[in-house]
Write a structure and sequence with these properties.
single chain; about 270 residues; alpha/beta; five-stranded parallel β-sheet; 12 helices; about 10% strand; disordered N terminus
């Protein structure tokens, strides 16, 4: 199957990638120094050259070039262009919270999301997915690291039921694992808005496992790659790529509630012996 043009996973959510470098390495590591500098100087990075970056961080230009390639870019110019887009997501988050009726709006959205997820949990789609989860040889969840921790908690809970689940994210990606999966396995992508699903579409297309997508996005191109798409809401929304991000009750809490209900339903049908 052939997909249309997609967005590159390597450069997906650049701010998150830079923060993961800062969070997981020593302060004296050149990658940490460079990531810290870029994050601290986002507003003036457009006027900064690769020579300026090397001088300001007291590293060699070759170190800067290696860093740029390490995080998935061909040039510093491309990195700067993507960073500008990434900051739009950050600003979207601020705009969402910085409203006079934030609390009322949050409660309204949460109530709507809760009803929608509960309705989904009682459909044949969820029953079918639970059977797949139980019967497939290997199960892998694929999701953006910054979007949710729900699959990690679910992964831990399922150990008590004798089911080992693998999790891969944008920063802990294993193309080898994807290539090893076969028709007896299941790959589950979690992408509320569809942005992460778009960024991983080409890799997922090559995977031979049974493929399931959980999303709000009713985009037709997903149907060419996934064997089953489970929509978090019945509301018909299709969008190719949300450059300014999306912040609401679904993106904040949707998967947390979904996985709690999923575990509840799973343990009812397949109790721990």
């Amino acid at each position: 199957m052939k997909t249309t043009d997609t967005h590159d996973l390597r450069t997906y959510n650049l701010v998150s990638t830079l923060l993961s470098i800062v969070n997981s390495n020593d302060d004296n590591d050149s990658n940490v120094i460079l990531a810290n500098y870029i994050l601290s100087n986002i507003d003036r990075l457009e006027a900064t050259s690769i020579y300026d970056l090397a001088d300001e961080c007291f590293v060699s230009r070759s170190s800067v070039q290696r860093f740029i390639k390490y995080i998935g870019f061909d040039s510093f110019s491309n990195l700067k262009a993507k960073l500008s887009e990434a900051m739009n997501h950050n600003h979207r988050y601020q705009r969402y919270c910085n409203t006079t009726d934030f609390v009322q709006q949050y409660h309204r959205q949460t109530e709507e999301m809760t009803k929608s997820i509960e309705k989904l949990a009682n459909t044949e789609h969820m029953e079918y997915f639970i059977d797949l989860l139980h019967n497939r040889k290997r199960v892998v969840f694929n999701f953006a690291e910054a979007s949710t921790v729900a699959p990690i908690a679910f992964q831990e809970a399922m150990i008590g039921n004798g089911k080992i689940i693998r999790c891969i994210t944008n920063s802990s990606r294993s193309t080898e694992l994807l290539e090893q999966l076969d028709e007896f396995d299941m790959l589950v992508t979690l992408s509320t808005t569809g942005n992460y699903a778009l960024a991983t579409l080409n890799d997922i297309n090559r995977c031979k496992a049974f493929k399931v997508l959980f999303t709000l996005n009713h985009l037709d191109k997903f149907k060419n790659v996934y064997d089953r798409i489970i929509y978090l809401s019945e509301k018909e929304e299709s969008f190719d790529y949300i450059r300014e991000g999306k912040r609401d009750a679904y993106t904040i809490q949707g998967f947390n509630y979904l996985f709690d209900l999923l575990l509840f339903k799973y343990l009812q049908k397949y109790p721990n012996e």
